[in-house]
Known about the structure:
Layout: H1 3-8, E1 17-21, H2 25-36, E2 40-44, H3 48-67, H4 73-82, E3 83-86, H5 89-93, E4 98-101, H6 107-120, E5 126-129, H7 137-140, E6 149-154, E7 163-168, H8 174-186, E8 190-193, H9 203-219, H10 225-234, H11 242-249, H12 251-265, H13 274-281
Parallel strand pairs: 1-2, 1-4, 2-3, 4-5, 5-6, 7-8
Antiparallel strand pairs: 6-7
This protein binds nicotinamide-adenine-dinucleotide.
The site of nicotinamide-adenine-dinucleotide has 24 residues, from α2 and α6.
Amino acid sequence: MTTTDARTDSATQRIRHVTVIGAGTMGSQIAMVSALAGFDTTLVDIAQLPLDRARTQLWERVDRDVAKGRRTAPDVAAAKQRLTFSTDRDTVVSGTDVAIEAAIEDLAIKRELFASLDAVAPTHTLLVTNSSNIVSSQIADATRRPEKVCNMHFFNPALVMECVEVVPHERTSPETVEAITALAQAFGKTVVRLKQEIPGFVANRLLNAIRREALALQEQGIAEVEDIDRAARTALRHPMGPFELMDLVGIDVVYLIRMAEYEQTGDPESLPAPSVKELYEAGQYGRKSGQGWYSYTS
Ligand SMILES: NC(=O)c1ccc[n+]([C@@H]2O[C@H](COP(=O)([O-])OP(=O)(O)OC[C@H]3O[C@@H](n4cnc5c(N)ncnc54)[C@H](O)[C@@H]3O)[C@@H](O)[C@H]2O)c1
């Protein structure tokens, strides 16, 4: 999408400038998605180092895309011009139309951050969070504009994955939902809209349901890990089985997501499966540690 396209779409009409807060795995790619879609975009972090690292990685990535013919050189050059990097959060946010928060997954930090964003952002500015586990009602009341707050949930890697979940809390206005939906579409994404918030949203709940069943089958001795993965790949056409996916994502991440959900729900059903806890406590995190459900040493 070009800048002109972005500006003529009615629901995104008022969105000229996008701020992305947090230059980690998600924030850096979300910022590039926004810049490639034609929006003036600033990526903000608390320190210069993550910003420099993000710039290097993003430039390498989009240059590779050009070399492979996936993007054109002029599109990438224009996106690089539109994307700026800053540690001066307040100045950037005072001139932005939407702030997409992708900082560390910590409720206290996010609440503090949203209160600070609210204090300096223009009144029309939408404040959304990319959090996977923290529903926006837990953050919105740290601001004086809860109706302009919701979850805008991207998937990793954000430059590649098509889906964005838009999740309102009870007080999010329909106009905010419309504007964030239109923004995600202008980013070239496919939107999954939730009517109300629930921990895990839709996609991760579906994933968890399959994972939970796979773990139960294994823990009850019904089938081996390899066979359960084989069934998912060859009968359901999933690109990889649930155990292979856990090893790829990281057993530590799988464990911590369950613990975060448990903290929100207090429901023992949310706790990590015993076998996942065992691997986590043994430091067997999957591919990254060389051992998880499978061994990666050879
Ligand atoms: N990693 C994933 O697969 C994934 C997928 C979807 C959503 N999310 C969500 O995205 C968010 C970010 O996750 P990530 O994996 O990119 O994390 P990350 O650890 O890679 O990056 C977080 C970045 O935020 C910065 N940061 C911390 N506090 C800050 C503050 N107060 N102001 C500005 N920047 C700050 C850090 O310096 C770091 O660069 C989390 O809320 C997570 O739930 C992650």
